[in-house]
Amino acid sequence: MTRxxxxxxxxxxxxxxxxxxxxxxxxxxxxxxxxLAFSVRAQGATGAALDDNAALNRLVSIMTAxxxxxxxxxxxxxxxxxxxxxxxxxxxxxILRFVRGGWANPDQAPRATLQKVEYRLTAExxxxxxxxxxxxxxxxxxALLVDRVQxxxxxxxxxxxxxxTWQGDERASLPQAMEMTLVRAGGQSYRLxxxxxxxxxxxxxxxxxxxxxxxxxxxxxxxxxAIDAPR
Length: 231
Description:
This protein is 23% helix and 29% strand. The chain contains 1 helix and 14 strands.
């Protein structure tokens, strides 16, 4: 006579245990997704801040070089209208117009070493426009320097006094310094300071050939600029 085989109890999880495990897994997954999303947003904000800082540094570098080499040389447009050597007005377009020296000519092309440049405020931002010749030439394509600019304010300093506009006067064609205040789309405000005409020799343009007149000397001075923290 054979004895009956005893059945062993099978091990496993109950439905409640499985549901609790799934709930814990879902909470961990949700926390991981939230952390990943936060990291992506932080990376995007950091990249945007770095791009903004780079754009401001680019604007400061280019304007410092342009302002330091400003020259006393009036120009004419394609219609023959005469413009002063340096003009600036925040309510005008362009905001700034002047002639700078030191235009590099590595190919030794038959052109001047002086260049007329303008700074304009458009819907895109602050643009720099250069001209291939000082008189009677159409502008080259504009270069966007900094975007998302809502407002630009400029002031000009000469003999210890500030003015909101500059068209030159009987005392001088160039101001001694310029202050530019930028208000960006996010409400940040930046104040930029530039010295004018301190970093290049005085050059007289001989029939747009770019020859330096005898006796033209370089005044002492170093171009300077500063950026105030956002307000």
